[in-house]
Amino acid sequence: MSQPIKLSIPSHPKYLGLIRKVLQELLDTHEVPEETARRLILCVDEACSNVIKHSYEGPCEEPIEATFFFDGEDFKVQIRDYGKQCDSSEIKPRCLDTIKPGGLGTHFINEIMDEVSYCTERAKGTLLTMVKKLKCELTSGQEKDKE
Amino acid sequence: MSQPIKLSIPSHPKYLGLIRKVLQELLDTHEVPEETARRLILCVDEACSNVIKHSYEGPCEEPIEATFFFDGEDFKVQIRDYGKQCDSSEIKPRCLDTIKPGGLGTHFINEIMDEVSYCTERAKGTLLTMVKKLKCELTSGQEKDKE
Amino acid sequence: MSIELKLEHPADNTVTVSIQGDIDMSSSTKVRDTLTPLFQDNNKAIIVDLSGVSYIDSSGIATLVEGLQWSHSNQSKFRLASMTPGVKDVFEIARLLTVFEVFDTKEEALAP
Amino acid sequence: MSIELKLEHPADNTVTVSIQGDIDMSSSTKVRDTLTPLFQDNNKAIIVDLSGVSYIDSSGIATLVEGLQWSHSNQSKFRLASMTPGVKDVFEIARLLTVFEVFDTKEEALAP
Ligand SMILES: Nc1ncnc2c1ncn2[C@@H]1O[C@H](COP(=O)(O)OP(=O)(O)O)[C@@H](O)[C@H]1O
Ligand SMILES: Nc1ncnc2c1ncn2[C@@H]1O[C@H](COP(=O)(O)OP(=O)(O)O)[C@@H](O)[C@H]1O
Asked: What's C10-54 look like in SS3?
């Protein structure tokens, strides 16, 4: 596994664009197909937004640390915060049958990522680990090219 | 002083574009004038290139850590490596009177930055600290706007 | 990175809102602050032109869902026009593409 | 992020090299690999069109200085055309703007 890329930003929405740019650039470097890249960026943005909203309960100067790994055919991203902990079973989408604002972020993450786990076994904060298997994505991208 | 932005990349030229993008985005967020931003990006790119070439003696998997601080009217950037140390007096531009390839990176850094210091007082590697006073730059940018 | 919103009144009680930029947690408040006053007027149709939006997250979707709710409770139209592929994909994953009235162009969305 | 180079032969013994992309440590090798073979031919003029380059670092400058050295030792021309403001600024800080033959357009650089 190669050395990860790490980015640490203060917990503030104004840095979400920065983290999306970094990830876009990184996924480009690794030739991840455009649609997959867009979806992975959405998940990381949503996870960071949730840290700002729920772990730190609003914008502040505390750090959000994102670490991106390319491990063979897996893309792994970890989001670490030092804010309020909660029971990870509480972090889940609402029922989508009623159309109302909110509650979509975790739904996006669960739909798009292959593995999602929240770990609070530490003094402070939460470590979210999300894994996407790129193999099928990369192959389907190549298939499309052939058409 | 606000919480810094940190980016860690493997010591490889293919990630220089990523670090430039991050810094561009960050300087945009802080409304640093375009020309100043370009020059600061050049310094960080040159400093990282020197780490790859001289500290790690070629591309490898070791990390380069860049930390960006906005401290009032100062922009400070620190570049940390864990490679070969050298006497910081050896890190200097050559005489520019003869026109020949190479030896320009440290010249750019010294011309553009207001403070430059290399610190090797640690078990491994070097910490480069560069400071740019933005006050005059920001003011001259505003002056230009008024014209 | 900053977002821009432009309002136009192509017909009586009809307003188009053209958005330029990414809609995320940092900018969705601005979208809401533009849309909400329109919900209180005598507007009969609001058309949101998304051609300039290449990125939207759940906070942006939430803001547009408020428009949908307004249209349902006021017998008015809240229509989305010119979604980019990235935005359309997010609506699809949210299972909202068939819930909104979505049009390929602003012109089509303006037809009664 | 990848760099592209295009060669053209607008006249005998004259070649233009148009570069598209950032010239940094990761791409300057490719620029050198394109330029070096041109130094060994019977070329009398090499014009480098930099209109597509918004960023150049010291490794890129070093590569262009090699062209300058070739032109001096071979009584040939090595000219730079259409620098963007960012690239011009780097040449200025390097005190090389007056050392190179620099032209506003490729056409002017092609004039004998
Ligand atoms: N990082 C987090 N820390 C604590 N709770 C969280 C976190 N992320 C999500 N949650 C919980 O999961 C719920 C669903 O999150 P989400 O689907 O993103 O919707 P929303 O944030 O709009 O409520 C949130 O309301 C919150 O209770
Ligand atoms: N990070 C570094 N570690 C060790 N030595 C360095 C470092 N950066 C620069 N140097 C030394 O300073 C010299 C001048 O650097 P520079 O002006 O960037 O030109 P170049 O890298 O092209 O030689 C280098 O040749 C090298 O000896």
From this structure: EECCEEEEEEECCECCCCHHHHHHHHHHHHHCCCCEEEEEEEECC
B137: how many CB neighbours lie within 10 A of its CB?
A: 19
CA–CA gap between residue C112 and residue C10 (Å, rounded): 12
Amino acid residing at D91: F
Report the SS3 class of residue D53. Answer: coil
Strands C45-52 and C14-20: parallel
**pLDDT under 70 in chain A at which residues?**
1, 136-147
Distances (CA, A) of B19 to A21, A48, C88, C96: 11, 20, 30, 37
Please report the DSSP string for A41-54 in residue order. HHHHHHHHHHIIII
Per-residue model confidence as pLDDT tens digits over D16-54: 999 999 999 999 999 999 999 999 768 999 999 999 999
D in contact with C (at least 3 C-beta pairs within 8 A): no
Establish if D2 touches chain A: CB-CB under 8 angstroms: no
Strand partners, B66: B7, B79
State in Å: Cα B50 to ligand 2 middle: 6
Nearest-by-CA chain C residue for B30? C1
Please tell me the predicted confidence (pLDDT) of residue C40: 78
Distance between CA atoms of residues C57 and C39, nearest Å: 22
Instruction: For tokens 């490889």, name the residue.
Output: B12
CA distance A71 to B142: 47
Residue bearing the bigger pLDDT, C69 or B97: C69
Question: pLDDT tens digits for chain B (147 residues)?
Answer: 578 999 999 999 999 999 999 999 999 989 999 999 999 999 999 999 999 999 999 999 999 999 999 988 999 999 999 999 999 999 999 988 888 888 899 999 999 999 999 999 988 999 999 999 998 655 554 444 443
Binning chain A into helix, strand and coil, the percentages to the nearest 5 are 40, 25, 35
The predicted pLDDT at position C109 comes to 96
- Would you say the CB of residue B24 lies under 6 angstroms from ligand 2? no
Give CA separation, C42 vs B39, C36, D23, in Å. Answer: 53, 13, 56
Residues with CB under 6 A from ligand 1: A 50-51, 53-55, 86, 90-91, 93, 102-107, 126; C 58
Taking residue C111's Cβ as centre, other Cβ atoms within 10 Å add up to 8
User: Does residue C105 contact residue C79 with C-beta atoms inside 8 Å?
Assistant: no
d(CA D89, CA B41): 13
* Complex-level ipTM: 0.89
Partners of residue B113 in chain D, C-beta under 8 Å = none
